[in-house]
Amino acid sequence: MCLAVPGKVLEIEERDGTKMAVVDFGGVVKDVCLEYLPDLQVGEYAIVHVGFALQRLDEESARQTLALFGNLGLLEEEFGDPWQQAAAEAGTTAEAER
């Protein structure tokens, strides 16, 4: 299954003419292309799918989405244990809801 997952922008830089960001997905840090959202800033959240930031997202919506994914067990299947930390930070745990 493919998910578009919210993440927080930690760093932004240009690499070979492409705007890129280091994004934290609840403890899993990945490089993400910002070409679709070139005005995204450090500290903001975005929905990311297959390495591309697609839509800006407010922090509360990001936390709610991570919690929902955690409750459904989707994050564990896709990304493993670090996602449980994101769900816990959002005020819930994947284990508690099972």
UniProtKB/TrEMBL annotation:
Instruction: Enumerate the Gene Ontology biological process terms.
Output: protein maturation
Instruction: Give the InterPro entries listed for this entry.
Output: Hydgase_assmbl_chp_CS, Hydrogenase_HupF/HypC
Q: Which GO terms describe its molecular function?
A: carbon dioxide binding; iron ion binding
Cross-referenced SUPFAM superfamilies: HupF/HypC-like
Family under the similarity heading: Belongs to the HupF/HypC family.
Which PANTHER family does the protein's record reference?
A: HYDROGENASE MATURATION FACTOR HYBG
Tell me the protein's name. Answer: Hydrogenase maturation protein HypC
State the organism of origin: Actinacidiphila glaucinigra
